[in-house]
Specification:
By secondary structure, the protein is α/β, with parallel strands linked by helices. Helix content is 24%, strand content 27%. It has seven helices and 14 strands.
Length: 323
């Protein structure tokens, strides 16, 4: 998309996108919120059970995988909320109801130090940039600290697939995070430089983008199997949260993996991170399923494992032993 927009203090004035209409089930209070991440508005959603205990509540931030949207997590959010948690979901920048980063498409000038001017820009949408997504997750962690019902001493992260790596990063970089659940997590994208051929392709693409010879991929392009959203390869080569699990000694980490994972080798991802984690930890293998089985036949089982883990480490119930 290309727009002619007026900038005010470096931010574009535009009508915000809205999440798809959603009527919560009886007993659940739902509201849409805005979260600012590096000047870009993210669309967030907050869930709370009407019969939740009074006062501050343990809080869980849910983040979706490659090409997903927060609306797909509403069922999980409702389930967690019914178990007494304040729950927040969000769309990464350029996805779902969130705004995208704006990139100038033509030269512009701003004289006399003014920060309000007009420029022709393109909105960057539906690409996969792990470092932008990490910033968005960290911004959401900061945002939730200001929620009236959030117990800031009991905040956990839940991430699935590509966000399973993001939550490990979040725990390593922000020690306010007390527990995480990484579900079928992909924790290392350095495969884009793993062979001489892939390394050449990644560096060539990065050089051409830096020199303005190519731009960003079009929205929703499918270049990795059937996954929606083209990866920014030069960003992926620096993404390896599998190396960071040991940097969150105070965070309880649950890794849920599919026995028949077909997208990557669990040994190089969740199992490697689990082995290096130094705090409370648990590795659960769901038998008989492939990657997407966590959203289908094993969804209830995965939710139960996550709830038990958060109950243990955000509520102190001690229902599932760490090992």
């Amino acid at each position: 998309m290309t727009y002619l927009v007026g900038f005010i203090l470096g931010q574009a004035a535009a009508e915000p996108r809205k999440p798809t209409h959603f009527d919560p089930p009886p007993g659940i209070t739902y509201r849409a919120v805005n979260i600012m991440s590096e000047g870009t508005r993210l669309s967030g959603e907050v869930f709370l059970a009407d019969d939740a205990p009074a006062g501050k509540l343990p809080t869980i931030i849910l983040s979706h995988g490659w090409g997903g949207q927060a609306s797909l997590l509403r069922g999980d959010a409702i389930t967690f909320a019914k178990h007494g948690y304040l729950v927040v979901t969000f769309d990464y920048r350029g996805w779902g109801a969130s705004d995208g980063r704006l990139i100038a498409t033509e030269p512009y000038s701003a004289s006399d130090g003014k920060t309000s001017f007009q420029a022709q820009v393109r909105e960057l949408r539906e690409v996969v940039d792990p470092h932008d997504q990490l910033c968005d997750l960290m911004s959401t962690i900061h945002w939730v600290q200001g929620e009236e019902r959030c117990d800031t001493d009991r905040v956990g992260l839940w991430g699935t697939s590509y966000s399973g790596g993001h939550v490990v990063y979040g725990a390593a970089k922000d020690h306010r995070i007390k527990a995480i659940v990484a579900q079928v997590p992909a924790l290392d994208s350095r495969l884009v430089i793993a062979t001489p051929e892939s390394r050449t392709e990644t560096f060539d693409e990065a050089t051409r983008r830096a020199r303005g010879e190519i731009g960003y991929p079009p929205p929703g392009q499918r270049v990795v199997g059937n996954l929606k959203g083209a990866p920014i390869r030069e960003k992926m080569m620096r993404y390896a949260p599998v190396e960071l699990a040991s940097e969150a000694p105070g965070c309880a980490m649950l890794f849920i993996v599919a026995e028949k994972e077909e997208l990557f080798d669990n040994k190089d991802h969740a199992i490697k991170a689990f082995e290096s984690a130094t705090g409370p930890k648990r590795l659960v293998t769901i038998p008989g399923i492939t990657h997407y089985g966590v959203y289908l036949q094993a969804r209830k089982k995965c939710q139960e494992e996550a709830i038990n883990w958060f109950d243990d480490h955000l509520k102190g119930k001690g229902s599932s032993a760490a090992r």
